[in-house]
Amino acid sequence: MKLRDIVAVAGMLISSAAVADQTGVLFDVVLTRDGKVVSSPKVIAEFGRRVSLSEGGVMQFEGSASPPDGEGNSFTAVKLSLFENGEMKAFDEMSMLANLTKSPSVEFSVPGTNARFVVKPRMVKLPPSKG
């Protein structure tokens, strides 16, 4: 077997191993009103992909996180919307550079309401893909 062939096979094995042990981001979104939890959905996304969820008639969430850099930090962005006075209103877009293994959070009190969002992004192992 030539060196070029050995390198190609090794590359395939390494990339297969990386796919089998792929990580992503879990967004734990908590919406409270007057300190009481109203909604607490969770959603998982691959790094680099935008994910959204809607809790009908309560809130909407969009989020994404970049793959971790050499220091373990991911650029994470979230967009929060709240159902208020009969309509869904986008209230804030926030971003941060953080290590998702160290429990960072994004917190936002919605002006003029008793609502507060807490978004906790965490690095997680993705479930195996079916295919």
Produce a short descriptive summary.
This protein is mainly beta.
Query: What's the end-to-end separation, in Å?
Result: 31 Å
Give helix % range.
Answer: 10-25%
Indicate the proportion of strand residues: over 45%
Poorly predicted sequence stretches spanning 5 or more consecutive residues: 1-20
Order of helices and strands: HEEEEEEEEE
Sheet/helix structural class: mainly beta
Main sheet, how many strands, which sense, barrel? 5 strands, antiparallel
- Rg (C-alpha, Å): 19 Å
Mean pLDDT value: 84
Structural commentary:
The protein is mostly beta strands and about 130 residues long. It is built from 1 helix and 9 strands. Strands 1, 2, 3, 8 and 9 form a 5-stranded antiparallel β-sheet that branches. It has a 4-stranded antiparallel β-sheet with strand order 4-5-6-7, with no helix packed on it. The longest helix has 18 residues. It is globular.
List the helices and strands and how they pair.
Layout (H helix, E strand, L loop, with lengths): L2 H18 L2 E11 L2 E4 L2 E5 L4 E5 L3 E7 L7 E12 L2 E13 L6 E4 L5 E11 L6
Antiparallel strand pairs: 1-2, 1-3, 1-9, 4-5, 5-6, 6-7, 8-9
Key terms:
1 helix; mainly beta; 131 residues; globular; five-stranded antiparallel beta sheet; 9 strands
